[in-house]
Automatic annotation (TrEMBL):
PROSITE patterns: THIOL_PROTEASE_HIS. This is Papain family cysteine protease. GO terms for molecular function: cysteine-type peptidase activity. It comes from Novipirellula herctigrandis. One of its GO terms (biological process) is proteolysis.
Length: 493
C-alpha cells in the first residue's frame, strides 16, 4: 500500500496542483493520485497479526503513516525491544467505549460531538478548508483532551494560521495541501493568531508546533465516517455546492443532493460531526455562521455518501488526528540502573509500558492494571508509572515484595480536584493540570502535591503535554513553556 507523504513546500504544492484540477468557491479537489494514496483505517490493519499476548503488531505501512505515541525524545538512548501494538484507537475521555484489541467497533444508533464543538463561525474568504481543519477538527479534539467545550481564544484553533500561510492571492486550498501543512507546522489558536492577523508571529509558530497532526486517513464509506465520529474525530468533507444547501433556511428533512434544484459548480469544505440512524442522516457543521440552517448545523441524507467520490456530492472525506490515541507507550528507568554494554545506543535498561485500546496497562505483553479499571492516559517519570483514571483521578503503581498495587493520589492540595491532563519526564516526579486550570507537581519523596507557577504574569495554564520527550505547558495567551532538567520553566524556542 502506498503511504501518503507530501514533502512539498506550499509554493510547490500550488504549482503542482495548478493544472487539471477542479476549482471551486472555497475548496479544490485533490488530484486522484494524491487522494487515493491516503490510507484508510482498514488499510493499516489488513496485515496485522495477533501475537501470543493478544496484541496486534503494526504493519510497515501503519508505522509509516501514524506518528508513534511515545515519551522518548531520542529512541537511541534506550534499549527498546519490540513493543506489542494494538490498532490505533481514540483515547478521548468520555467519547469512545472500551475497545477490544482487535474487535470491530459496535456503533450506537446515534452519536454526535456537539459537547466538544465550538459555536459555528463565519468565514469571510475562500478559507473553508482551513475552517474545517482548524476551527472544527482541531478545536473539537483538543477540547476532548482538555475535557471542555471550546469557547476561549486559547481553545479555538485559527483558520487564519493555515490559510494565510498557504493561499496565493486569496485562492482556495486543497484539503491535502492544508493537511500536509499541519503535519509539518501544526496549528495555532486564536490566542496567538486572530482572524485580523495577516502573518503569524513567533509565539504563534511555536504554539502551532505544539499541536502537529498525528495521523491522517481517508474515509471511503459512510460506515467509516460514522466510526471516526464515534471515536471523537470530526470528518472533513469536500462537497458539491447547491442553491438549496447554500440557503440559510432550515430543511424539513435531511438535505439530499439528488433532490437539489439548483446545482452549481464548485466545492466546499464542511465537517461531519454526528449521525442518527433514525433520521438516516449525518450531522454536518458549516462555517457560514449560526444563521445558516439550524444554528450553523444541518442534517444531510445518508444517500449523499453512496458513494464517496469525485462524481458524488461528497467527493473527499479526510480525517486529521491531533489528539492522543492508543496504544500509548511510555518508559521509566529500571530500579537496578544496569548499564547495557552490548549496544552502543543503550544507556540504561528501561521498563516499557503500554496503555492499549482496551484501556488497560501492559508490560511485556501482560496486563498489570486491574481488570475492571479504565485509564485515559499514562505517564512516567524517572522511576514511577502513573495513570489517569476515567473519573479524572491520578494513580501511581507501587511494587514491593508483597506484589503490585495502585495508590490514589488525589489528596492534600489536590483533594476533590478533577485532573484533565498529566505528564512526566526523567527530571520531575509528575505534573497534573486540573479542570480549573491549576498546575500541580507531585513530589514523591513527601507524597504531596505542590502548585506550580509557570511565570510571574497572571497567565493560566490551559494545556499540558509531552512533545518530543519534553514537557510543554501552554498558557491562556498561547505562550508555550518547556520544563528543563533544572526544574525551571522557559519559553519554548
Amino acid at each position: 500500500m502506498q503511504s501518503y507523504k507530501l514533502a512539498f513546500t506550499a509554493v510547490t504544492i500550488v504549482f503542482f496542483f495548478s493544472a487539471g484540477s477542479s476549482f471551486g468557491q472555497g475548496a479544490r479537489l485533490s488530484p486522484p493520485e494524491i487522494y487515493q494514496a491516503i490510507p484508510t483505517r482498514f488499510d493499516r490493519i489488513d496485515d496485522l497479526e495477533t501475537d501470543n499476548a493478544g496484541f496486534e503488531n503494526p504493519s510497515a505501512s501503519e508505522q509509516a503513516t501514524v506518528t508513534p505515541q511515545t515519551d522518548v525524545e531520542d529512541q537511541e538512548q534506550a534499549d527498546w525491544p519490540e513493543l506489542s501494538s494494538g490498532i490505533a484507537r481514540s483515547m478521548a475521555p468520555g467519547i469512545d467505549q472500551r475497545f477490544g484489541l482487535a474487535s470491530d467497533i459496535d456503533l450506537p444508533s446515534k452519536f454526535d460531538l456537539t459537547a466538544y464543538l465550538p459555536t459555528p463561525g463565519k468565514q469571510g474568504r475562500n478559507d473553508c478548508v482551513a475552517w474545517a481543519i482548524a476551527y472544527s477538527a482541531y478545536s473539537c479534539q483538543i477540547g476532548q483532551e482538555r475535557r471542555k467545550k471550546p469557547s476561549d481564544p486559547s481553545d479555538l484553533f485559527s483558520p487564519a494560521f493555515i490559510f494565510n500561510q498557504l493561499s496565493v492571492n486569496g485562492n482556495p486550498l486543497y484539503a491535502t495541501q492544508a493537511i500536509d501543512f499541519v503535519k509539518q507546522n501544526g496549528c495555532a489558536t486564536k490566542a496567538t493568531m486572530s482572524s485580523e492577523d495577516t502573518t503569524p508571529n513567533a509565539r504563534a509558530l511555536v504554539e502551532g508546533k505544539t499541536f502537529r497532526m498525528q495521523r491522517n486517513e481517508k474515509a471511503n464509506t459512510l460506515h467509516e465516517i460514522e466510526t471516526y465520529i464515534h471515536e471523537g474525530y470530526p470528518v472533513i468533507l469536500i462537497v458539491r455546492m447547491g442553491g438549496d444547501f447554500r440557503s440559510d433556511t432550515s430543511n424539513d428533512s435531511p438535505y439530499d443532493w439528488r433532490q437539489e434544484s439548483d446545482r452549481r459548480d464548485g466545492y466546499h469544505a464542511i465537517t461531519a460531526v454526528g449521525y442518527d440512524d433514525s433520521k438516516q442522516a449525518v450531522l454536518v457543521m458549516n462555517s457560514w455562521g449560526t444563521q445558516w440552517k439550524d444554528d450553523g448545523f444541518c442534517w444531510v441524507s445518508y444517500d449523499n455518501f453512496d458513494p464517496i467520490g469525485g462524481q458524488s456530492w461528497c467527493a473527499e472525506a479526510h480525517v486529521v488526528g491531533v489528539k492522543t490515541f492508543a496504544p500509548i507507550n511510555v518508559s521509566m528507568q529500571s530500579s537496578g540502573r544496569t548499564r547495557n554494554f552490548n549496544r552502543r545506543s543503550s544507556r540504561f535498561q528501561r521498563r516499557l509500558f503500554q496503555l492499549a485500546a482496551d484501556r488497560r496497562v501492559y508490560e511485556g505483553g501482560k496486563a498489570i492494571s486491574p481488570n475492571d479499571w479504565v485509564f485515559d492516559d499514562i505517564a512516567c517519570n524517572k522511576d514511577s508509572l502513573f495513570a489517569l483514571g476515567r473519573y479524572q483521578t491520578v494513580f501511581r503503581m507501587n511494587e514491593d515484595l508483597s506484589g503490585r498495587s495502585w495508590t490514589h493520589l488525589n489528596h492534600g492540595k489536590m483533594a476533590n480536584k478533577k485532573v484533565t491532563m498529566l505528564a512526566g519526564d526523567r527530571t520531575t516526579d509528575l505534573l497534573a493540570l486540573t479542570g480549573s486550570n491549576e498546575l500541580f507537581h507531585y513530589v514523591a519523596r513527601s507524597g504531596n502535591w505542590e502548585p506550580v507557577q509557570i511565570s510571574e504574569t497572571e497567565r493560566s495554564p490551559v494545556d499540558l503535554r509531552l512533545v518530543n520527550g519534553k514537557i510543554r505547558v501552554t498558557t491562556s495567551d498561547g505562550s508555550v513553556f518547556v520544563h528543563d532538567r533544572d526544574s525551571d520553566w522557559s519559553l519554548a524556542p
